[in-house]
Amino acid sequence: MINGNTELIAHIGYPTHAFKAPMIYNPYFDHIGVNARVMPMGCKAEDYPGFLRAVFKLTNIRGALITMPHKVSTVGMLDEASPTVQIAGSCNAVRRAGDGRLVGDMFDGEGFVRGIRRKGLDLAGKRVLVVGSGGVGSAIAASLAAAGIAAISLFDVNTASAQALGERLRQHYPQLEVRTGSNDPAGHDLVVNATPMGMNEGDPLPMDVSRIAPTSFVGEVVMKSEMTAFLSAAQARGCTVQIGSDMLFEQIPAYLEFFGYPTTTPEVLRSLAQISY
Question: What is the pTM (predicted TM-score) of this model?
């Protein structure tokens, strides 16, 4: 029930028809008896700078989930940005500090990392390949670096994008071995597809799967289907895999912690969610 004590989390993006967060968070809030609601708020890019500041003038707002097309532009509107935001160049969560400052973080990568850790992969000292250096790929790379990997290889069809991400990683993690320019998965403990390849039937694979060792862990960010052609091919080689929607459900506990709500597990969220994958 929404009443005068309801706290709001604004889910800001455009268009809003594909938003899934309200169908995950709100059943959870009902389950634990928290008087809060995630509310979709459609805002076009030209109106967003003024809207973000305005929405945080509300006295009952707890925070904001930021999605496309605003993740990148949000960074310049923050008073404080986490290292992950600085490396990724994008932000998907904002809250207001006690002094009124807007504090931002990025949890796409955190969700990915939590998922593979819960599946048993110890990231310390590992060698990783991330294909795709856009917002999600950059966030994943940043969170992997924070998790203590030893080396990361970055590849993007836009060479400059991968190189720029590599430089930002080196600035924040000077001990990290960073390479760019190759999507060869051989010799990597963890291989990540952070590109849209797999969204559509017949998409090419993001790398030569025959070069992935059966002992490697393989992760995906595409959520359109649970087992993409890439994951199916990797699994056929004997690899342990992580599906794209795991990244979504694994990052929500981190969001809850960021906003100061009781946290939970992905299993609880999936059991309560009013969506299916």
Answer: 0.88
Q: Which residues have C-beta within 8 Å of that of residue 187, sequence separation ≥ 6?
A: 127, 213
How many angstroms separate the CA atoms of 110 and 252, rounded?
Answer: 10
Q: pLDDT tens digits, residue range 201-221?
A: 788 999 999 999 999 999 999
CATH number for 193: 3.40.50.720
Q: What is the CATH number of the domain that holds 93?
A: 3.40.50.10860
- Pair 114, 205 in one domain: yes
277 inside domain: no
pLDDT of residue 65: 97
Averaged pLDDT for residues 124-153 = 96
Segments forming the whole domain that contains residue 121: 109-242
Per-residue model confidence (pLDDT) at position 277: 46
Look up residue 181 and give its amino acid: G
Domain count, the chain: 2
Q: Which of 61-70, 149-158, 193-202 has the lowest mean pLDDT?
A: 193-202
- The rounded distance, in Å, linking the Cα atoms of 226 and 228 is 6
What six digits make up the tokens of 38? 């995630």
Q: Residues of the chain with pLDDT > 70: what percent?
A: 99
In a domain, 58, yes or no: yes
Please name which of 40, 108, 44, 52 lies closest in space to residue 78, comparing C-alpha atoms.
52
Write 222-227 long-range contacts (CB < 8 A, 24+).
222/193, 222/196, 222/197, 222/198, 223/248, 223/277, 224/198, 224/199, 225/198, 226/277
How far is the C-alpha of 218 from the C-alpha of 227, rounded, in Å?
12
Asked if 113 and 95 sit in the same domain, the reply is no
